[in-house]
Structure formats: structure tokens, C-alpha cells
């Protein structure tokens, strides 16, 4: 096989893993007895790696089950995906784990100390520092019904309603 054929094949494979749209999807359940938001967040793995690398001074961070990236992820989530209380303090994020698929990663975490959802703000600025067209969708499951929210770079915070 010619070297040019190998190089073209390699370029095709690399470009096949890129995506032209920038989205994330979160599912949130509120556990009133534990005063906790239970979050599942689906992100593109390459976007997560880029965000973590940028957040850590350009140090290349790869999402891999064998590498210790959980503390990087928890710090990033605390900064970019959190609940803000009435005193403008963000609530603690506890990273529980991740599942890595072909090109997406599911992140599982809890936001604790959320005694109610009244007058709380949700911030979801995940990857907005990387992409001006980033759209973050959030579905919140509540006993009173489900609510959906859309977050963009110019709208990273929204008020949660019950």
C-alpha cells in the first residue's frame, strides 16, 4: 500500500470523529430527602478533553478509564455546572464516575446541599469557553412534572422552577 493511501485513510479516520455541532445533554433528578440533584451529563469526549486541557494550562488531558482524570472533571463541573443559591454561592459538586463510549462520555455527579429548588439558579456553561455556538440542554425530572432548559454562551444561568 502506498504511503499516500495510508495517510489519506488516516486523515479520513481522524475527521470522522470530529463533529460540527456543539451540544451537551443533561438529565437531572431531584432527591428531596437527600437534598441532592442527581445529574447525568452526556458530552462529546474530544470537547471534554479540550476543556480540561485548557482549564489546566494547556496540559494534554485524555479521558481514559486508566488515567486519573476524575479530579479534573470534578473541578471543571464545579466551575461550569452548578446550582447557585440565594446568596450567590455555588453548591458542592461530587463527581461519581463516567462511562466512555466511542465519541461521547457520560458524566455522573451530584450537587449537594440543595434544600429546595425554589429561587435556585442553575448554571450550565459547559464548553462555552471553547465554542460560541455551544448549546447545553437540561431536562429536570420533578414530581410535579418535567422541565427543560436551554443554555447558551450568552445565557449560562437560568432560574429553576418547581
Describe this structure in words.
The chain has 162 residues and is α+β, with helices and mostly antiparallel strands. It has one domain. The chain has helices at residues 3-16, 45-55, 70-80; strands at 23-31, 36-44, 81-84, 93-100, 104-112, 121-124, 135-142, 145-152, 157-159. The strands form two sheets. It has a six-stranded mixed β-sheet. It has a three-stranded antiparallel β-sheet with strand order 3-6-9. A hairpin with a 4-residue loop joins strand 1 and strand 2 (36-44). The longest helix has 14 residues, at 3-16. It is globular, with a radius of gyration of 18 Å. The model is unreliable at 3-16 (pLDDT under 50).
What would you say about this model in short?
The chain is α+β, with helices and mostly antiparallel strands.
Keywords summarizing the entry:
162 residues; alpha+beta; 6-stranded mixed β-sheet; 3-stranded antiparallel β-sheet; 38% strand; globular; disordered N terminus
Topology, element by element:
Elements: H1 3-16, E1 23-31, E2 36-44, H2 45-55, H3 70-80, E3 81-84, E4 93-100, E5 104-112, E6 121-124, E7 135-142, E8 145-152, E9 157-159
Amino acid at each position: 500500500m502506498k504511503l499516500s493511501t495510508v495517510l489519506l485513510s488516516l486523515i479520513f479516520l481522524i475527521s470522522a470523529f470530529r463533529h460540527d455541532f456543539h451540544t451537551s445533554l443533561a438529565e437531572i433528578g431531584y432527591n428531596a430527602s437527600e437534598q441532592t440533584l442527581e445529574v447525568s451529563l452526556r458530552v462529546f469526549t474530544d470537547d471534554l478533553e479540550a476543556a480540561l486541557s485548557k482549564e489546566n494550562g494547556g496540559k494534554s488531558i485524555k479521558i481514559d478509564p486508566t488515567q486519573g482524570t476524575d479530579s479534573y472533571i470534578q473541578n471543571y463541573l464545579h466551575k461550569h455546572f452548578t446550582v447557585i443559591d440565594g446568596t450567590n454561592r455555588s453548591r458542592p459538586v461530587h463527581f461519581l464516575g463516567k462511562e466512555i463510549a466511542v465519541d461521547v462520555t457520560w458524566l455522573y455527579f451530584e450537587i449537594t446541599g440543595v434544600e429546595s429548588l425554589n429561587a435556585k439558579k442553575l448554571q450550565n456553561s459547559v464548553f462555552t469557553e471553547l465554542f460560541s455556538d455551544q448549546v447545553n440542554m437540561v431536562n429536570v425530572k420533578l414530581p410535579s412534572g418535567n422541565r427543560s432548559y436551554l443554555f447558551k454562551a450568552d445565557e449560562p444561568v437560568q432560574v429553576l422552577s418547581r
